[in-house]
Each structure stands twice: as C-alpha cells, then as structure tokens.
Design a protein that fits this description.
Structural class: alpha/beta
CATH architecture: 3-Layer(aba) Sandwich
Largest sheet: 6 strands, mixed
Helix content: 40-55%
Number of domains: 1
Strand order of the largest sheet: 1-6-5-4-2-3
Radius of gyration: 18 Å
Length: 201
C-alpha cells in the first residue's frame, strides 16, 4: 500500500515539475484530456476588458498569426471574421458577454455559453485572452517594453478548459522604444508552442 502511494506521489510530482518547467512559462496548467485534444478549428476571442484595451486588436491578430504559423490546427478563424460574426449576430454577442461575465465571477468556463460561442463561430475550440501588461516601464534600473498575456484554451463541444497559461516578455532599451506588437509576436509564438494540440513525435 505504501509502495503504491509512493508511486502515485512520484507520478504527481513528475507532472507538476513538467508543467512548471514547461518552456519557461510563468504558469501552465493542463486538463486531463489536454494531451489527446485534437481540435480542427479555433478562434481567438476578443481579449477580455482590462486597462490595456488599446492593445486588444493587436493581441488578437498576433495570436491568430502564431496559431497559423504553428500549423497544428487546420483552420484558424481570422480576427476580422470573429468581429464580423459578433457584429452580425446579437445571439453570438450576448453569448460572448455572458461567457466573459461568468468567467470573471466564477473563474470557470460556462458550458452553455461556450457551446453557443463554438456554434456561432463554427469552431470546435477557442482561445480566451487577457492582456496583463502592455507598457513601457522602469524595471531594475532599465527602461523596458513589457507585454504579458493569460491564455485559456476551451473545448467548444463541452465548454471545458483544456489548458491555461500565463507569461510575459520584456525588451530593454536606452533611447528607441521597442515595438510592443513585436514583443507580443515573440510572446505569442512562445506561448502557442506549448498549447495543445501538442506536436506529434
């Protein structure tokens, strides 16, 4: 009995170490089905409201480009098409508002509105985005451009969260400010690399 408990402990500890060390991302969480999740289509939702709302279009764009570049999901809905759908359909927009509201209140993905969003966008998965930083700041005596994101991958068929991650990138400078969008591109590429579906060995 002790041996079995010890084996389970080692297995759990190994999983924690893999997740915490995964690609050097600040935070990573995978659901039980993450390793076998194989969506054929995905949409990047408009980033949730934050103090960095001016960055929303740029972030949505760079994430869609990063998903296309990774090439593991067959169809990535363009940000323009996502916007068009929410502007054309009150039901889709209401589902988005309700979904974000429930996520803010409970921290959980609401199944019914997630499924409605998947059907409205004609996808089997979508990415929920929060911009944590998009700014020029002083950090440890240096001037830096900093971009931070939280991502959540949702299975649109079940409404469950498959994967979550949080990470940040910053570039230091002396006189010429780096482009925050360029920093965001590097950050998006880095984060999407570790998002399911994982590359097949």
């Amino acid at each position: 009995m002790l041996s079995r408990s010890y084996t389970q402990f080692v297995a759990v500890l190994g999983l924690v170490l893999v997740l915490s060390g995964c690609g050097g991302l600040q935070e990573v969480w995978e659901g039980p089905g993450a390793r076998v999740f194989r969506p054929q289509s995905i949409a990047v939702l408009p980033p949730m409201s934050s103090q960095y709302d001016s960055a929303r279009e740029d972030i949505q764009e760079v994430l869609a480009v990063a998903l296309n570049r990774q090439g593991r999901i067959e169809r990535v809905v363009t940000p323009e098409n996502v916007t068009d759908i929410f502007q054309a359909s009150k039901e889709a927009f209401d589902s988005l508002v309700f979904y974000f509201s429930r996520l803010e209140m409970t921290g959980q993905s609401d199944k019914d509105s997630a499924v409605k969003l998947g059907k409205s966008l004609n996808v089997d998965s979508f990415l929920v985005v929060r911009v944590n930083s998009w700014e020029y700041v002083r950090k440890e005596g240096d001037n830096v451009g900093r971009v931070g994101l939280s991502l959540r991958l949702i299975d649109a068929a079940t409404g469950t969260t498959v994967w979550k991650a949080r990470h940040e990138r910053s570039n230091s400078y002396m006189f010429i400010k780096p482009s925050l969008k360029e920093i965001a591109k590097d950050l998006a590429d880095e984060m999407i690399k570790y998002m399911p579906p994982q590359a097949k060995p």
